[in-house]
TrEMBL record:
InterPro entries: Cytosol_ACT, HOTDOG_ACOT, HotDog_dom_sf, Thioestr_dom. One of its GO terms (cellular component) is cytosol. It comes from Salegentibacter salarius. GO terms for biological process: acyl-CoA metabolic process; fatty acid catabolic process. Belongs to the acyl coenzyme A hydrolase family. Residues 1-109 form the HotDog ACOT-type domain. This is Thioesterase. It holds the Pfam family 4HBT. GO terms for molecular function: long-chain fatty acyl-CoA hydrolase activity. Keywords: Hydrolase. It comes from the Bacteria.
Amino acid sequence: MRFHTRKWIKPEDLNPNGTLFGGKLLAWIDEECALYSIIQLENSKCVTKYMSEINFQYSAKQGDIVEIGIEVLKFGTTSLTLKCEVRNKMTRSTIITIDKVIMVTLDEAGKPTPHGKTKVEFVKDRLQDKA
Ligand SMILES: CC(=O)SCCNC(=O)CCNC(=O)[C@H](O)C(C)(C)COP(=O)(O)OP(=O)(O)OC[C@H]1O[C@@H](n2cnc3c(N)ncnc32)[C@H](O)[C@@H]1OP(=O)(O)O
């Protein structure tokens, strides 16, 4: 799994219990999965179709640095199946895992459309291929 984005837990991210608000974390994960899919599938219309069981394992507190990791499980025809983990950057404690996130590429009419991708690509390689 590759860990991409880092987040710094600020006062506005906390719940009344003084720890990281779960809804905030889910919003970060959803955005991360969407961005990852848009870049991988080269389609700006990627939506979240499905998220499997969400397991909050550990909390985070103000001042903690967390990082969001994504792994591709499967390239489908119109979908991309991802696995996600968020962990504490310094202690490596797992905060949350989501075993399956299904993202779907849409056409202009908002219908699922084949993305034509079969493997993970890196933007730097695409740019080299074009040069
Ligand atoms: C980033 C964001 O926050 S986006 C905002 C939140 N998301 C949304 O608003 C999406 C709302 N949902 C929709 O618009 C529709 O459900 C759509 C367009 C995404 C999908 O429409 P559907 O008619 O269900 O599509 P369809 O049945 O063709 O499935 C599309 C793909 O998703 C997969 N899929 C659909 N449901 C599931 C599921 N429950 N579990 C696993 N895969 C699924 C299908 O297998 C298919 O993949 P494939 O083409 O790779 O084989």
